[in-house]
Design a protein that fits this description.
By secondary structure, the chain is an alpha+beta fold. It has helices at residues 85-101, 109-123, 128-142, 188-199, 212-229, 235-245, and strands at residues 2-15, 19-26, 30-36, 55-61, 67-76, 148-152, 162-165, 170-173, 184-185. The protein has six helices and nine strands, in the order βββββαααββββααα. β7 (162-165) and β8 form a beta hairpin. The chain is elongated, with a radius of gyration of 20 Å. The N and C termini lie far apart (48 Å). Involved in DNA repair and RecF pathway recombination.
Length: 248
């Protein structure tokens, strides 16, 4: 059967002497694995379509299992994301997280658009850590673990201060914080931004400026949520942690 889909390359690996197998995220067919013959050859018509982060149109043939590319066109190469170590690291984390948390052939037009907006924001030079934290929130939502920040998950109180209880799926007020001794205290600014992140659509993202101390707390909060509900070891995240430890 022939398929024509819009897709973003979220994984690319060598296959044999001259080919590559790519995994693309599509809005209509979820993840699709496609063999691209001759992609590593210097004169390949399709080599650029196999580059990580590429947004393109892919025409492929598949009966079952692996598809075979017959034609394709690049919509956005996102080449800037492959030219600098820091940008590459953030974009690689976004696509690896997507790959590891989505199922084959599970359509998700929303997540496709969120990933595309994430890559575009990184390419446009917007703040990498903030973009990644926003995208992590979208991954939690898509995975069914959307946290509650508007009120205490235990009693419904909306008066702060609040603490993040990842295992409870949201925030606890001072009266209920005893229910989770591992709950993470949140500053007022961090709590406000988490509520904003929960509601925000990445496709409508403007410029966001976050103070360094708030950014550090947001990273800790999102790490807690991701580790509690997703808990998948990622090579790209380990690399980001190394970059934080030894800044460029």
């Amino acid at each position: 059967m022939q398929y024509r889909v819009e897709g973003i390359v979220i994984r690319s690996m060598d296959y044999g002497e001259g080919g590559k197998i790519i995994t693309i995220l599509t809005p209509s067919h979820g993840k699709a694995a496609i063999l691209v013959r001759g992609a590593k050859k210097a004169k390949s018509r399709h080599g650029s379509l196999t580059q990580l982060f590429t947004h393109g149109e892919y025409l492929y043939y598949r009966n079952s299992g692996l598809g075979t590319l017959t034609h394709g066109e690049i919509i956005e190469s996102h080449h800037v994301l492959r030219e600098g170590l820091e940008l590459t690291a953030y974009a690689a984390y976004a696509v690896e997280l997507t790959d590891r948390t989505t199922n084959d052939e599970e359509a998700s037009g929303y997540l496709f658009m969120q990933l595309l907006a994430c890559l575009r924001a990184l390419a446009d030079g917007k703040d990498g850590p903030t973009i990644i934290q926003l995208y992590e929130m979208k991954i939690l939502e898509a995975s069914g673990y959307a946290p509650m920040f508007d009120e205490c998950v235990s009693c419904g109180n909306v008066v702060g201060p609040m603490a993040l209880s990842a295992r409870s799926g949201g925030v606890l007020c001072n009266r209920c914080r005893y229910k989770d001794s591992s709950a993470m205290p949140l500053s007022e600014s961090a709590h406000k931004l988490l509520k904003l992140f929960r509601r925000m659509d990445l496709t409508r993202l403007g410029n966001i400026q976050v103070k360094d101390e708030t950014k550090a707390q947001l990273k800790q909060a999102m790490r807690l949520l991701i580790d509690t509900h997703i808990n998948i070891p990622l090579k790209s995240r380990a690399f980001l942690d190394q970059m934080d430890k030894y800044p460029l």
